[in-house]
Amino acid sequence: MKFNRLLPVFCNLFSAVLVWSAEPVPLPESTPWDVEALSRAPAYEWVAKEGKVKSLTYRGLPYKGKATS
């Protein structure tokens, strides 16, 4: 009876060990993203700095040749 109660615990522990011991998936040689450009913060402008809630806008990538913000 006690074994039946502990079986799910042992199964979960065994599954966790299998997941943690698995080899990570290797990263591809290249990615479709410009990681350097993504790591730089975009230009931004504060709209409201007063109060508890502050808002800002930032420049996004152009979409169909038009600027986004």
UniProtKB/TrEMBL annotation:
Protein name (Swiss-Prot/TrEMBL): Uncharacterized protein
